[in-house]
Fold each of these.
Amino acid sequence: QVQLVESGGGLVQAGGSLRLSCAASGRTFSTYAMGWFRQAPGKEREFVAGITWSIGITYYVYSVKGRFTISRDNAKMTVYLQMNSLKPEDTAVYYCGARRTSPVGAGWGQHYEYGYWGQGTQVTVSS
């Protein structure tokens, strides 16, 4: 069993930065692959970034490559999403999810494979 709690969201101007955190509980956290998703009003939940549990292989949606960085600290049971050069189109509720398997490529976006989700944190980027 894994419980996830996101934090770090807020209001920022375009071009600014935020770092989101996803704190996990559960003794098996280090064996889960972790993903960040986001959902804007009226839109479907969209995959943003993922990281495998072992050697930390990362994967990003094209729109955030070079701007966002996902990382994890298994000792602290926390996953981070560093977001730089934020744009108004990044505005959304951001969720972290945990899954047993480490996918390849587009498989990261299969939200139904994530067995655990946090409650989300709002990110608003003003122009």
Amino acid sequence: QVQLVESGGGLVQVGGSLRLTCAASGRTLASHNMAWFRQAPGKEREFVAAISKIPSFTDYSDSVKGRFTISRDNAENTMYLQMNSLKPEDTAVYYCAARWDVFARVYNRVNEYDYWGQGTQVTVSS
């Protein structure tokens, strides 16, 4: 079992930046492929970014490509999402997700992940 806890959300103005953190316990993240998803009110949970096991392949949704950066620190059992140039449409609850895997791959569907955090709210005000 992996327990995931997100932090770093908050209220930020348009064009601002935030860094989200996903801290894991229970098992090492080094054996897991991981991702960030988000869910806005009244909408389905959507893919934001994914990062594989070493060598850390990455993938991004078109809506965040060039603005967000996903990274991981296996020694700290932590994953990050650096969010720059934030827009009002980035407002959502952000969730981190993990799946144990033999292969280093990126996955972008909700049902491909086994473990989820409780979410952290990001609000971008105009």
Amino acid sequence: QVQLVESGGGLVQPGGSLRLSCVASGRTFNNYYMGWFLQAPGKEREFVAVCSWGGSIKYYANSVRGRFTISRDNAKNTVYLQMNSLKPEDTANYYCAADKLPLRQYSTTPPTGNFDFWGQGTQVTVSS
């Protein structure tokens, strides 16, 4: 059974940092794009960042570019999201997901609909 498990969320003050982790089990995703997405209460799920299978190609939402960094460790089947300079508007449940197909190449941000194997999410709350 394929499973993605996120962790690392919590309550942090504005300007603070968090590092989210997503561990995959049941399958290796070394040949898949992996991504992070967020969903705030009452809103649609939104793209945050994605990373190519080798880690060299990354796309970010405009709202997080320069503050968040996505990375991956294929030996550990793990994807990370380093979140710096957090703002109250970053408050949401953060999910990781894997591309539905392996070895795809993207020249721009891939559609959220191309991703599957959603985890349960980890809550990030930015508040003073």
